[in-house]
Specification:
This protein is an alpha/beta fold. The protein folds into 2 domains: 156 residues, Quinone Oxidoreductase, Chain A, domain 1 (Alpha-Beta Complex); 136 residues, NAD(P)-binding Rossmann-like Domain (Rossmann fold). The chain has 11 helices and 15 strands. The strands form 3 sheets. Strands 3, 4, 5, 6, 7, 14 and 15 form a 7-stranded mixed β-sheet that branches. A 6-stranded parallel β-sheet has the order 10-9-8-11-12-13, with helices on both faces. A two-stranded antiparallel sheet has the order 1-2. Strand 1 and strand 2 form a beta hairpin. The chain is globular, with a radius of gyration of 20 Å.
């Protein structure tokens, strides 16, 4: 069976620093073991994409090696299978799937890179699968125990996912700390037992009060702000663990304190690339979808802004100008190619 071409496929591109446009492209047709997907929604990773958009990273870092122009941002999309190549079973045209591609209307990818979405889970919620996967690696690094205590610094998109994994893992005391007070209702909905709206440098007394006079065993820094690291070290319990989950573009500015040696802290880095055979993109996504579909991983209300692809300049301006009041920034591709 012949596969029709897509005459109006589009994608978002950064031609250079602080530049964004939408351009036409040809996604091609699927070969053996491949499918073509048609995007309904894609989610901006505001932390990663703002760092890339502004080139806010130091020379010689992994960011510097990765970001080359033209750069195609994005890695979180949901939609449907549009065409299938030979041997792509069991996927069929029309299947609802999640996939990791840039912000674009269509793409040809391997069938094994598509993750079926439960019928009961709306696209708007399934869209969080990639950010949930990143935060899952932070939860694994934390090595949570039943009845544990944890603090998540930063209640942005990654922080919100981190709170939910701590709840799913049976952590008893879950503190969320963020200077943006409007993020606190979402943090509480996600499992925070205390939501502290204050800069981390000013939150110690509130943290002790929320913890019954004790500091949390696990501290997860989800912010990507290099200046937060030193404060995080001072807020973990003796012999506690500090997980660096937010990937800063300026790692040389993350300064150690005497807390590390004097109080015997463990520092662990967690990253999107830390997959294993047991916990791969497929297995983590399957678990996430199962928990979300059953209501054990609440996702309502996380999408704060929706833009059409042609509004990409406005979308990135909003992400830079108003990041403290944004959460999930979504591109809606459903009018491309007549999709509804």
């Amino acid at each position: 069976m012949s596969v029709p071409a897509i005459p109006n496929a589009r994608r978002i591109v950064f031609p250079g620093k602080q530049e964004v446009v939408i351009e036409p492209f040809d996604p091609g047709i699927p070969g053996p073991g491949e499918v073509r997907v048609r995007t309904h929604l894609s989610l901006m990773s505001t932390g990663t994409e703002n760092i890339v958009f502004n080139r806010h990273f130091d020379p010689g870092t992994h960011w510097d090696n990765w970001v080359k122009y033209p750069f195609h941002p994005g890695y979180t999309s949901v939609g449907v299978v549009d065409a299938v190549g030979e041997g792509a079973e069991p996927l069929r045209v029309g299947d609802r799937v999640a996939f990791r591609i840039g912000h674009r209307s269509h793409e040809v990818i391997g069938a094994d890179a598509c993750f079926p979405i439960p019928e009961s889970l709306p696209f708007e919620q399934a869209l969080w699968f990639s950010l949930a996967k990143i935060a899952f690696h932070g939860a694994r690094a934390a090595d949570y125990r039943l009845g544990d205590s944890a603090m998540i610094i930063g209640a942005g998109p990654i922080g919100q996912m981190s709170l939910r994994w701590a709840r799913a893992a049976g952590v008893e005391s879950i503190l969320a700390v963020d200077a943006a007070s409007h993020r606190m209702p979402l943090a509480r909905a996600g499992g925070a037992t205390a939501a502290i709206a204050a800069p981390i440098e000013q939150a110690r007394e509130a943290i002790l009060q929320a913890g019954g006079g004790r500091l949390p065993r696990v501290v997860i820094d989800s912010t990507g702000n290099a200046a937060v690291f030193s404060a995080a070290l001072g807020l973990a319990a003796d012999r506690g663990t500090v997980v660096i989950l937010g990937d800063t573009g300026q790692p040389a500015r993350q300064a150690l304190t005497s807390d590390v040696i004097m109080r015997g802290l463990t520092i662990i880095g967690a990253h999107d690339g830390h997959t294993t055979q047991e916990w791969s993109q497929a297995t983590i996504t399957r678990l996430f979808f199962s928990l979300a579909a059953s209501g054990r991983f609440p996702l309502e209300g996380l999408n704060s802004h929706v833009f059409k692809p042609e509004q990409c300049a406005e979308a990135y301006a909003t992400a830079n100008r108003d990041r403290a009041v944004t959460m999930g920034i979504v591109f809606d591709w459903t009018e491309d190619g007549g999709v509804k």
